[in-house]
Protein backbone atom coordinates (compact mmCIF):
# COMPACT_ATOMS: atom_id res chain seq x y z
CA UNK A 1 0.00 0.00 0.00
CA UNK A 2 3.00 2.31 -0.35
CA UNK A 3 6.72 2.83 -0.12
CA UNK A 4 8.83 2.37 2.98
CA UNK A 5 8.91 5.88 4.39
CA UNK A 6 11.22 5.21 7.34
CA UNK A 7 14.51 5.04 5.41
CA UNK A 8 17.23 7.35 6.66
CA UNK A 9 20.37 8.72 5.02
CA UNK A 10 23.31 10.50 6.59
CA UNK A 11 24.23 13.97 5.45
CA UNK A 12 26.16 17.09 6.34
CA UNK A 13 25.67 20.76 5.71
CA UNK A 14 25.52 24.26 7.17
CA UNK A 15 22.86 25.75 9.41
CA UNK A 16 21.69 28.88 7.60
CA UNK A 17 18.67 29.90 9.70
CA UNK A 18 17.69 29.52 13.35
CA UNK A 19 14.25 30.44 14.64
CA UNK A 20 12.62 29.89 18.02
CA UNK A 21 11.49 26.30 17.42
CA UNK A 22 13.20 25.18 14.24
CA UNK A 23 15.97 25.89 11.76
CA UNK A 24 17.21 25.08 8.25
CA UNK A 25 20.28 23.23 7.00
CA UNK A 26 21.69 23.84 3.53
CA UNK A 27 23.21 20.74 1.96
CA UNK A 28 24.36 19.34 -1.40
CA UNK A 29 24.30 15.70 -0.25
CA UNK A 30 21.03 14.49 -1.77
CA UNK A 31 21.26 15.26 -5.47
CA UNK A 32 20.25 18.91 -5.30
CA UNK A 33 22.65 21.84 -4.92
CA UNK A 34 21.82 24.29 -2.12
CA UNK A 35 18.89 22.19 -0.86
CA UNK A 36 17.39 23.41 2.42
CA UNK A 37 16.19 20.85 4.99
CA UNK A 38 14.22 21.78 8.15
CA UNK A 39 15.01 20.52 11.65
CA UNK A 40 13.47 20.96 15.09
CA UNK A 41 15.24 22.68 17.98
CA UNK A 42 15.65 20.09 20.75
CA UNK A 43 15.77 20.72 24.51
CA UNK A 44 19.44 19.73 24.72
CA UNK A 45 20.26 22.59 22.32
CA UNK A 46 18.82 25.18 24.74
CA UNK A 47 21.13 26.74 27.35
CA UNK A 48 20.17 29.14 30.17
CA UNK A 49 22.19 32.17 31.21
CA UNK A 50 21.21 35.22 33.27
CA UNK A 51 17.53 34.32 32.99
CA UNK A 52 17.66 34.11 29.20
CA UNK A 53 17.45 31.19 26.79
CA UNK A 54 20.16 30.55 24.21
CA UNK A 55 20.36 28.01 21.37
CA UNK A 56 23.74 26.28 21.18
CA UNK A 57 24.84 24.86 17.82
CA UNK A 58 27.62 24.90 15.23
CA UNK A 59 27.32 26.15 11.66
CA UNK A 60 28.69 22.89 10.27
CA UNK A 61 26.54 19.92 11.21
CA UNK A 62 26.07 16.21 10.47
CA UNK A 63 22.57 14.74 10.53
CA UNK A 64 20.25 11.94 9.45
CA UNK A 65 17.69 12.64 6.75
CA UNK A 66 14.25 11.35 7.69
CA UNK A 67 11.77 10.82 4.87
CA UNK A 68 8.02 10.41 4.91
CA UNK A 69 7.26 12.87 7.69
CA UNK A 70 3.58 13.81 7.29
CA UNK A 71 3.11 17.53 7.86
CA UNK A 72 0.15 19.67 6.85
CA UNK A 73 -1.13 16.90 4.55
CA UNK A 74 2.22 16.54 2.76
CA UNK A 75 5.12 14.12 3.04
CA UNK A 76 8.28 16.08 3.77
CA UNK A 77 11.92 15.36 4.60
CA UNK A 78 13.54 16.65 7.77
CA UNK A 79 16.93 16.48 9.48
CA UNK A 80 17.15 14.57 12.79
CA UNK A 81 19.88 13.49 15.24
CA UNK A 82 22.04 16.54 14.58
CA UNK A 83 25.75 16.23 15.47
CA UNK A 84 27.51 19.54 16.04
CA UNK A 85 31.19 20.45 15.82
CA UNK A 86 32.01 20.63 19.55
CA UNK A 87 35.12 22.73 18.89
CA UNK A 88 33.15 25.46 17.14
CA UNK A 89 29.95 25.83 19.15
CA UNK A 90 28.17 29.18 19.07
CA UNK A 91 25.11 30.48 20.90
CA UNK A 92 22.24 32.66 19.78
CA UNK A 93 19.60 34.13 22.05
CA UNK A 94 16.32 32.33 21.56
CA UNK A 95 13.48 34.48 20.27
CA UNK A 96 10.66 35.17 22.69
CA UNK A 97 6.96 35.79 22.14
CA UNK A 98 6.28 39.25 20.74
CA UNK A 99 3.21 41.28 21.82
CA UNK A 100 0.63 42.02 19.15
CA UNK A 101 1.57 45.66 18.50
CA UNK A 102 5.27 44.78 18.36
CA UNK A 103 4.42 42.16 15.74
CA UNK A 104 2.52 44.80 13.80
CA UNK A 105 5.44 47.24 13.84
CA UNK A 106 7.92 44.52 12.93
CA UNK A 107 5.80 43.18 10.06
CA UNK A 108 4.89 46.64 8.78
CA UNK A 109 8.54 47.64 8.71
CA UNK A 110 9.67 44.38 7.08
CA UNK A 111 7.05 44.52 4.34
CA UNK A 112 7.12 48.28 3.77
CA UNK A 113 3.69 49.16 5.18
CA UNK A 114 3.23 52.79 6.11
CA UNK A 115 2.30 53.80 9.66
CA UNK A 116 1.00 57.40 9.82
CA UNK A 117 2.60 59.93 12.16
CA UNK A 118 1.35 58.82 15.57
CA UNK A 119 1.58 62.28 17.13
CA UNK A 120 -0.60 63.72 14.39
CA UNK A 121 -3.04 60.84 14.84
CA UNK A 122 -3.16 61.49 18.57
CA UNK A 123 -3.94 65.15 17.96
CA UNK A 124 -6.76 64.14 15.62
CA UNK A 125 -8.14 61.67 18.14
CA UNK A 126 -8.05 64.29 20.90
CA UNK A 127 -9.62 66.99 18.76
CA UNK A 128 -13.07 68.05 19.98
CA UNK A 129 -14.02 70.25 17.01
CA UNK A 130 -16.33 67.76 15.26
CA UNK A 131 -17.91 66.80 18.57
CA UNK A 132 -18.50 70.48 19.44
CA UNK A 133 -20.15 71.12 16.07
CA UNK A 134 -22.40 68.12 16.60
CA UNK A 135 -23.48 69.39 20.02
CA UNK A 136 -24.12 72.88 18.66
CA UNK A 137 -26.35 71.43 15.95
CA UNK A 138 -28.32 69.69 18.69
CA UNK A 139 -28.86 73.04 20.44
CA UNK A 140 -26.93 72.06 23.56
CA UNK A 141 -26.19 75.06 25.78
CA UNK A 142 -22.62 76.46 25.70
CA UNK A 143 -22.01 75.70 29.38
CA UNK A 144 -23.17 72.11 28.94
CA UNK A 145 -20.99 71.76 25.83
CA UNK A 146 -17.92 72.88 27.80
CA UNK A 147 -18.69 70.34 30.52
CA UNK A 148 -19.19 67.48 28.03
CA UNK A 149 -16.04 68.33 26.07
CA UNK A 150 -13.98 68.58 29.26
CA UNK A 151 -15.04 65.08 30.29
CA UNK A 152 -14.48 63.86 26.74
CA UNK A 153 -10.91 65.22 26.69
CA UNK A 154 -10.09 63.72 30.08
CA UNK A 155 -11.39 60.35 28.94
CA UNK A 156 -9.36 60.45 25.73
CA UNK A 157 -6.21 61.49 27.60
CA UNK A 158 -6.56 58.32 29.66
CA UNK A 159 -7.09 56.21 26.53
CA UNK A 160 -4.23 57.66 24.45
CA UNK A 161 -1.38 57.66 26.96
CA UNK A 162 1.25 56.09 24.69
CA UNK A 163 2.03 55.73 21.00
CA UNK A 164 0.93 52.11 21.23
CA UNK A 165 -2.50 53.26 22.43
CA UNK A 166 -2.75 55.52 19.40
CA UNK A 167 -1.58 52.78 17.02
CA UNK A 168 -4.08 50.29 18.45
CA UNK A 169 -6.99 52.73 18.00
CA UNK A 170 -5.84 53.58 14.48
CA UNK A 171 -5.71 49.90 13.46
CA UNK A 172 -9.16 49.34 14.97
CA UNK A 173 -10.66 52.28 13.09
CA UNK A 174 -9.08 51.11 9.82
CA UNK A 175 -10.62 47.64 10.28
CA UNK A 176 -7.32 45.83 10.80
CA UNK A 177 -7.52 42.71 13.01
CA UNK A 178 -4.76 40.52 14.52
CA UNK A 179 -5.42 37.59 12.17
CA UNK A 180 -4.53 39.85 9.22
CA UNK A 181 -0.87 39.49 10.20
CA UNK A 182 -1.12 36.14 8.40
CA UNK A 183 -1.12 38.02 5.10
CA UNK A 184 2.47 39.15 5.65
CA UNK A 185 4.34 36.33 3.90
CA UNK A 186 6.99 36.22 1.24
CA UNK A 187 5.07 35.23 -1.83
CA UNK A 188 2.18 37.63 -1.32
CA UNK A 189 4.46 40.61 -0.70
CA UNK A 190 8.13 41.37 -1.24
CA UNK A 191 10.00 42.23 1.93
CA UNK A 192 12.14 45.37 1.93
CA UNK A 193 15.34 43.45 1.26
CA UNK A 194 13.99 41.74 -1.85
CA UNK A 195 12.18 44.86 -3.01
CA UNK A 196 15.40 46.88 -2.82
CA UNK A 197 16.99 44.52 -5.34
CA UNK A 198 14.33 45.51 -7.86
CA UNK A 199 13.35 49.08 -6.98
CA UNK A 200 15.56 51.81 -5.47
CA UNK A 201 14.46 52.77 -1.96
CA UNK A 202 13.49 56.32 -2.96
CA UNK A 203 11.14 54.97 -5.67
CA UNK A 204 9.43 52.34 -3.55
CA UNK A 205 5.74 52.85 -2.93
CA UNK A 206 4.64 51.92 0.57
CA UNK A 207 1.63 49.77 1.27
CA UNK A 208 -1.11 51.09 3.53
CA UNK A 209 -3.23 49.43 6.19
CA UNK A 210 -6.25 49.87 3.93
CA UNK A 211 -4.44 47.75 1.30
CA UNK A 212 -4.24 44.86 3.78
CA UNK A 213 -7.89 45.28 4.76
CA UNK A 214 -8.83 45.22 1.06
CA UNK A 215 -6.85 42.00 0.53
CA UNK A 216 -8.79 40.48 3.42
CA UNK A 217 -12.08 41.41 1.73
CA UNK A 218 -10.85 39.75 -1.48
CA UNK A 219 -9.78 36.69 0.50
CA UNK A 220 -13.25 36.36 2.05
CA UNK A 221 -14.90 36.37 -1.39
CA UNK A 222 -12.27 33.92 -2.63
CA UNK A 223 -12.98 31.60 0.33
CA UNK A 224 -16.65 31.37 -0.65
CA UNK A 225 -15.78 30.55 -4.26
CA UNK A 226 -13.11 28.04 -3.22
CA UNK A 227 -15.52 26.23 -0.90
CA UNK A 228 -18.12 26.02 -3.68
CA UNK A 229 -15.53 24.85 -6.21
CA UNK A 230 -14.08 22.19 -3.90
CA UNK A 231 -17.59 20.97 -3.03
CA UNK A 232 -18.23 20.54 -6.76
CA UNK A 233 -15.02 18.49 -7.08
CA UNK A 234 -16.03 16.39 -4.08
CA UNK A 235 -19.49 15.71 -5.55
CA UNK A 236 -18.00 14.96 -8.97
CA UNK A 237 -15.74 12.27 -7.47
CA UNK A 238 -18.65 10.74 -5.58
CA UNK A 239 -20.81 10.77 -8.72
CA UNK A 240 -18.00 9.08 -10.64
CA UNK A 241 -17.74 6.19 -8.16
CA UNK A 242 -21.52 5.89 -8.01
CA UNK A 243 -21.79 5.70 -11.81
CA UNK A 244 -18.98 3.14 -12.05
CA UNK A 245 -20.60 0.98 -9.38
CA UNK A 246 -23.89 0.84 -11.29
CA UNK A 247 -22.98 1.18 -14.99
CA UNK A 248 -19.48 -0.22 -15.57
CA UNK A 249 -18.59 -3.90 -15.88
CA UNK A 250 -17.37 -5.18 -12.53
CA UNK A 251 -18.03 -1.84 -10.87
CA UNK A 252 -20.68 -3.25 -8.57
CA UNK A 253 -18.33 -5.98 -7.32
CA UNK A 254 -15.47 -3.56 -6.66
CA UNK A 255 -17.79 -1.15 -4.87
CA UNK A 256 -19.04 -4.05 -2.76
CA UNK A 257 -15.47 -5.04 -1.88
CA UNK A 258 -14.70 -1.48 -0.81
CA UNK A 259 -17.79 -1.30 1.40
CA UNK A 260 -16.99 -4.72 2.91
CA UNK A 261 -13.45 -3.53 3.62
CA UNK A 262 -14.86 -0.52 5.48
CA UNK A 263 -17.38 -2.65 7.38
CA UNK A 264 -14.68 -5.05 8.62
CA UNK A 265 -12.01 -2.45 9.27
CA UNK A 266 -10.55 -2.08 12.76
CA UNK A 267 -9.65 1.53 11.99
CA UNK A 268 -11.78 3.74 14.24
CA UNK A 269 -12.52 6.34 11.58
CA UNK A 270 -13.57 3.77 8.95
CA UNK A 271 -15.63 1.85 11.50
CA UNK A 272 -17.39 5.04 12.61
CA UNK A 273 -18.09 6.08 9.02
CA UNK A 274 -19.65 2.71 8.25
CA UNK A 275 -21.82 2.71 11.37
CA UNK A 276 -23.12 6.21 10.62
CA UNK A 277 -23.78 5.25 7.01
CA UNK A 278 -25.67 2.12 8.05
CA UNK A 279 -28.06 4.20 10.15
CA UNK A 280 -28.35 6.97 7.56
CA UNK A 281 -31.67 5.85 6.04
CA UNK A 282 -33.07 3.84 8.93
CA UNK A 283 -36.85 4.35 9.22
CA UNK A 284 -36.88 6.75 6.26
CA UNK A 285 -38.89 6.28 3.06
CA UNK A 286 -35.70 6.87 1.09
CA UNK A 287 -34.59 3.43 2.23
CA UNK A 288 -37.04 1.87 -0.27
CA UNK A 289 -34.41 2.51 -2.97
CA UNK A 290 -32.21 -0.31 -1.63
CA UNK A 291 -32.80 -3.76 -0.13
CA UNK A 292 -31.18 -3.34 3.27
CA UNK A 293 -32.58 -6.72 4.41
CA UNK A 294 -31.45 -8.90 1.53
CA UNK A 295 -27.99 -7.31 1.25
CA UNK A 296 -25.37 -7.86 3.91
CA UNK A 297 -23.67 -4.53 3.25
CA UNK A 298 -24.85 -1.01 2.47
CA UNK A 299 -24.38 0.58 -0.98
CA UNK A 300 -21.27 2.65 -1.60
CA UNK A 301 -23.41 5.79 -2.01
CA UNK A 302 -24.45 5.56 1.64
CA UNK A 303 -20.82 5.31 2.69
CA UNK A 304 -19.80 8.27 0.55
CA UNK A 305 -22.50 10.39 2.20
CA UNK A 306 -20.37 10.24 5.37
CA UNK A 307 -17.28 11.58 3.63
CA UNK A 308 -15.92 14.87 2.44
CA UNK A 309 -12.68 15.83 0.75
CA UNK A 310 -10.70 15.21 3.94
CA UNK A 311 -11.26 11.44 3.81
CA UNK A 312 -12.41 10.78 0.24
CA UNK A 313 -8.80 10.10 -0.77
CA UNK A 314 -8.81 6.83 1.23
CA UNK A 315 -11.97 5.64 -0.51
CA UNK A 316 -10.63 6.43 -3.99
CA UNK A 317 -7.33 4.69 -3.23
CA UNK A 318 -9.13 1.59 -1.91
CA UNK A 319 -11.39 1.52 -4.97
CA UNK A 320 -8.35 1.68 -7.24
CA UNK A 321 -6.52 -1.04 -5.28
CA UNK A 322 -9.47 -3.44 -5.50
CA UNK A 323 -9.74 -2.66 -9.22
CA UNK A 324 -6.11 -3.63 -9.82
CA UNK A 325 -6.47 -6.82 -7.77
CA UNK A 326 -8.99 -8.27 -10.22
CA UNK A 327 -12.46 -9.76 -9.72
CA UNK A 328 -14.56 -12.79 -10.63
CA UNK A 329 -17.25 -11.90 -13.17
CA UNK A 330 -19.45 -14.53 -14.83
CA UNK A 331 -16.92 -17.22 -13.98
CA UNK A 332 -13.99 -15.29 -15.43
CA UNK A 333 -11.12 -13.51 -13.70
CA UNK A 334 -10.91 -9.93 -14.96
CA UNK A 335 -9.13 -6.72 -14.05
CA UNK A 336 -11.49 -3.78 -14.04
CA UNK A 337 -9.12 -0.83 -13.93
CA UNK A 338 -10.94 2.44 -14.41
CA UNK A 339 -8.63 5.12 -15.85
CA UNK A 340 -10.65 7.98 -14.35
CA UNK A 341 -10.13 6.71 -10.79
CA UNK A 342 -6.54 5.70 -11.57
CA UNK A 343 -5.72 9.23 -12.72
CA UNK A 344 -7.19 10.78 -9.56
CA UNK A 345 -5.21 8.41 -7.32
CA UNK A 346 -1.96 9.03 -9.21
CA UNK A 347 -2.36 12.74 -8.46
CA UNK A 348 -3.90 12.42 -4.99
CA UNK A 349 -1.46 15.04 -3.65
CA UNK A 350 -3.80 17.57 -5.26
CA UNK A 351 -6.56 16.37 -2.93
CA UNK A 352 -4.31 17.01 0.06
CA UNK A 353 -3.53 20.53 -1.09
CA UNK A 354 -7.21 21.21 -1.69
CA UNK A 355 -8.02 19.78 1.74
CA UNK A 356 -5.69 22.25 3.44
CA UNK A 357 -7.27 25.15 1.56
CA UNK A 358 -10.80 23.86 2.19
CA UNK A 359 -10.24 23.46 5.92
CA UNK A 360 -8.83 26.97 6.19
CA UNK A 361 -11.72 28.44 4.19
CA UNK A 362 -14.34 26.49 6.15
CA UNK A 363 -12.98 27.83 9.44
CA UNK A 364 -12.78 31.41 8.21
CA UNK A 365 -8.98 31.54 8.02
CA UNK A 366 -7.15 33.42 5.24
CA UNK A 367 -6.38 31.12 2.33
CA UNK A 368 -4.36 33.33 -0.02
CA UNK A 369 -1.30 33.23 2.30
CA UNK A 370 -1.52 29.43 2.48
CA UNK A 371 -1.47 29.21 -1.30
CA UNK A 372 1.53 31.47 -1.84
CA UNK A 373 3.58 31.14 1.37
CA UNK A 374 6.83 29.30 0.48
CA UNK A 375 7.32 28.36 4.14
CA UNK A 376 3.96 26.59 4.45
CA UNK A 377 5.63 23.39 3.30
CA UNK A 378 9.20 23.14 4.68
CA UNK A 379 10.49 21.43 1.52
CA UNK A 380 9.02 24.20 -0.67
CA UNK A 381 7.35 21.78 -3.06
CA UNK A 382 4.49 24.23 -3.52
CA UNK A 383 6.62 27.30 -4.12
CA UNK A 384 6.30 28.97 -7.49
CA UNK A 385 9.05 31.59 -7.58
CA UNK A 386 12.16 29.40 -7.12
CA UNK A 387 11.29 25.74 -6.41
CA UNK A 388 14.26 24.04 -8.05
CA UNK A 389 16.70 26.21 -6.12
CA UNK A 390 15.55 24.80 -2.80
CA UNK A 391 14.37 21.24 -3.37
CA UNK A 392 14.53 18.52 -5.99
CA UNK A 393 11.65 18.72 -8.46
CA UNK A 394 11.25 15.76 -10.81
CA UNK A 395 8.36 17.22 -12.82
CA UNK A 396 5.46 19.66 -12.75
CA UNK A 397 1.79 18.80 -13.25
CA UNK A 398 -0.54 21.62 -14.23
CA UNK A 399 -4.26 21.16 -13.57
CA UNK A 400 -7.01 23.15 -15.23
CA UNK A 401 -10.27 23.72 -13.41
Q: What's the short story on this structure?
A:
This protein is an alpha+beta fold. It has helices at 100-110, 118-126, 129-137, 142-159, 163-174, 192-198, 209-247, 251-263, 268-278, 300-304, 309-325, 339-346, 349-362, 368-372, and strands at residues 8-18, 22-27, 35-40, 46-49, 52-57, 60-71, 74-84, 90-93, 327-329, 332-334.
Describe, in plain words, how this protein is organized in 3D:
There is one protein chain. The chain has a five-stranded antiparallel β-sheet with strand order 3-2-1-6-7. A three-stranded antiparallel β-sheet has the order 4-5-8, with no helix packed on it. The chain has three domains: 10-93, OB fold (Dihydrolipoamide Acetyltransferase, E2P); 100-207, no CATH class; 225-361, no CATH class. The protein contains 14 helices and ten strands. The chain has helices at residues 100-110, 118-126, 129-137, 142-159, 163-174, 192-198, 209-247, 251-263, 268-278, 300-304, 309-325, 339-346, 349-362, 368-372; strands at residues 8-18, 22-27, 35-40, 46-49, 52-57, 60-71, 74-84, 90-93, 327-329, 332-334. Helix 7 packs across helix 8 (251-263), helix 8 (251-263) crosses helix 11 (309-325) and helix 11 crosses helix 12 (339-346). The protein is of the alpha+beta class. The two termini are 29 Å apart. 20% of the residues are buried. Residues 1-6 and 379-389 have low confidence and may be disordered.
